[in-house]
Amino acid sequence: MKLTDFINVSDVETHILGKNVAGRIFPARDDREAWANLPTDLQQAWLTQAESYLGYEWPSLRATAFMAYFEEGSRKPYDSVETERRNALCTLLIAECIEAKGRFLREITNVIWLLCEQTTWCAPAHHYLSLQPGEIFSDVEEPLFDLSAGETAALLAWTSHLLKSPLDEISPFIRGRIRVELERRIITPYTDRNDFWWMGFGEREVNNWNPWCNANMLTVLLLQELEPERKLILFDKVLRSLDRYLEVQFEDGGCDEGSTYWARAAGMLLVNLELLYRASDGMLQVYDQPLIRKLGQFVYSMNINGHYYVNFADGSAIASQDYSMIHLYGSRIQDDQLRALGQIGFRSYQVHDRRGKGISFFQEMISLHCFASIHKEAALAPPRVQDVWLPNLEVMAARESEGSSQGLFVAIKGGHNDESHNHNDIGHFVVYVHGKPFLIDIGVETYTQKTFSPQRYEIWTMQSGYHSVPVIHGFEQKDGRSFRAEDVAYAYSEDAVRFEVELARAYPAEAGVQSWHRSLTLHRGLNPAIELRESCLFAEPTDQVLLHIMSSQRPKHHEQGQIRLQDHGNNQLILFYEHEQWESVFEHITITDESLTKVWGDSLYRIQFKLRHAVQQGSWMFRMSEQ
After folding, report:
1. How far is 392 from 590, CA to CA, in rounded Å?
2. At 89, is the secondary structure helix, strand, or coil?
3. Residues near 503 by Cβ (< 8 Å), separated by ≥ 6?
4. Best CA proximity match to 572, nearest among 433, 455, 477, 444
5. Per-domain residue ranges for the chain?
6. pLDDT of residue 101
7. For residue 190, what are the CA distances in angstroms to 48, 105, 153, 594?
8. Burial class of residue 150, CB neighbours in 10 A (0-12, 13-18, 19+)
9. Which end of the chain has fewer CB atoms surrounding its CB within 10 Å, N or C?
10. How far is CA 574 from the centre of its chain?
11. Which part of the chain is the Heparinase II/III-like C-terminal domain (predicted)?
């Protein structure tokens, strides 16, 4: 699919140029009825948060904080301050629109000043975009357009638009400075450069950066005053760039960045589509296109129960989804299951839960102005899909019963080891019981410089040894597109669903594995169980074979050939194995990283099966059930 097959610059000229597009997107500050109609407790929550910034001692962005990324690999010293500045401006801006008394204008002016005075809007981790790689400081003469710069730009553009009159009453130079910085840091680089990889005009494949950066560029474009001819040139470039993103999307809608990244992938594509839809008063839309529908539906196909999601790649098992955007997506494509996920997730949050989450102004406004309507809707049933098969992504998910979190749930993947946000995890699977995690995908630690460096696979959470796949002759799976699944197959019947995959090509030649065929089946019915069958052929006999399974529950030897896992709710999973063939040992892993402890606490466990006897050819069965 190409966006430009449905929306072109002629359409933009007809339906957007010369129109009050900003007023179509969100209510103006002077639209007192729209702001007054927000729920009183929601208004008060925003005002209370904004009041915490009155007389605020704004943190400085020190040169040493910028340097810390290059010297220590830490993103936090710089990124946390910059994110706080944006969060503060977003909060103050919305509070000023709610109240419209000018009480927050001085602090808004302060943070505008701070943002405009920053040497760069680009995060230190993204300074590889520079034409001068290797520098530990930013060159003010080479503004870089990354995710952070785009977020800052879009927020300043909305601030300038919504507070035009009150800011100009203080001084016209405030908004004048915003115009200068948007032109210098965003509009000109976007116009002049085609080599930002995320644009898609080079050889590198794009990912979520493309719709994310383009959404912010489109915001600036819609809100700033530019010559019509120049606007059309930029609109054309945005549309063509978004086409590069759509070109690499799977027809099945699967996101190889994982379900946690849905909000920054399909969710950011939605921001672009919704900006065009609203700015054109509904005339420019592609919500009826099959690919757009599939991209939206992916997120509920990966939902296990509540806030638990299948989290292959750089994802968290407890995903921080933007449920108001999910609800909006479902409404636009007229999919009640997607709407239901959004509705249920959105209603689970309290009024105060969204503060300080780094959510963009656009997303905050969607949440704010749909709050009352979502809460008034008739309750929809949770979208717990019984069977999911994504043939392009090579991911299967299945549960015992449609619409229910009760019983067993399993998901397994194929793919290759050069996916976006890749882990070396071909053939990896997870198992949940009654919607709770038992055999897991660990997720990813807090991002550092190492995460996206050549040393990425030195990080334990990225390695196949910490996923539910074999280690053969001491060799784990390798990273790279050539290390991939083969002969992936899916079979479905009313009583069972099966996934098969050949893993040999995921390993280096030195491992001596000629074949490793994995078959995973969920059996339904009176005695539900998950059956894992492994068949292998090696170049020569060996006993150097390990099978690993990661667990969130402490494993215990139950009876011979049985391992028992039980959670605090007395849900349990029994793992049966061939004791004569395999020795099982347990490893306790202490967790200290904040991103992981928020999900798993301070402990995880690795179950390790060691082959007892040398084989050249072997076949084994493992079985998992509640009894």
Report:
1. 36
2. helix
3. 426, 427, 469, 470, 485, 513, 516, 517, 518
4. 433
5. 1-23+231-383, 38-193, 387-625
6. 97
7. 38, 30, 12, 36
8. buried
9. C
10. 32
11. 415-522
Query: Cα dihedral sign for 488, 430, 329, 156?
Result: negative
The pLDDT of residue 494: 87
Bridge-based pairing state of the strands 529-542 and 513-523: antiparallel
Name residues whose C-beta falls within 8 Å of residue 251's C-beta, 6 or more positions apart in sequence: 291, 294, 392
- pLDDT score of 349: 74
Whether pTM > 0.90 for this model: the answer is yes
DSSP summary character for residue 472 = E
Tally of CB atoms within 10 A around 280: 19
Cα separation, 158 vs 219, in Å, equals 8
User: Where does 183-252 have alpha helices with state H?
Assistant: 188-192, 209-223, 228-247
Amino acid, res. 245? Y
With beta carbons less than 8 A apart as the criterion, state whether 192 and 212 touch. no
Nearest to 305 by CA among 436, 441, 394: 436
Please compute Rg for the chain using Cα positions. 26
Strands 572-576 and 562-566: antiparallel
Q: What is the rounded distance in angstroms from the CA atom of residue 85 to the CA atom of residue 111?
A: 7
> Which 3 state secondary structure label does DSSP give 491?
strand
**Residue 152, amino acid:** T
Mean pLDDT, each 10-residue run in order, the chain (627 residues): 96 94 94 95 94 95 94 93 95 97 98 97 95 87 97 98 97 98 98 97 95 98 96 98 98 93 95 98 98 98 96 92 96 98 88 60 94 94 96 98 96 96 97 98 94 94 97 96 98 96 98 97 96 97 96 95 95 97 97 96 97 96 96
Q: Helices H, strands E: what count in the chain?
A: 19, 21
- The DSSP string of 373-414 is HHHHSPPPPP---SEEEETTTTEEEEESSTT---SEEEEEE-
**Sign of the torsion angle spanned by Cα atoms 86, 449, 417, 242:** positive
Fold of the domain built from segment(s) 387-625: Beta-galactosidase; Chain A, domain 5 (2.70.98)
Measure Cα distances from 149 to 116, 124, 146, 164 in Å: 11, 11, 5, 22
Query: What's the pLDDT score for residue 348?
Result: 85
- By C-alpha distance, which of 253, 131, 276, 151 is closest to 196? 131
Sequence letter at residue 519: S
Measured between alpha carbons, how far is residue 287 from residues 249, 273, 276 in Å?
Answer: 16, 8, 11
User: Which stretches of 233-291 are assigned E, i.e. beta strand?
Assistant: none
Q: Which two tokens stand for residue 171?
A: 């001084």
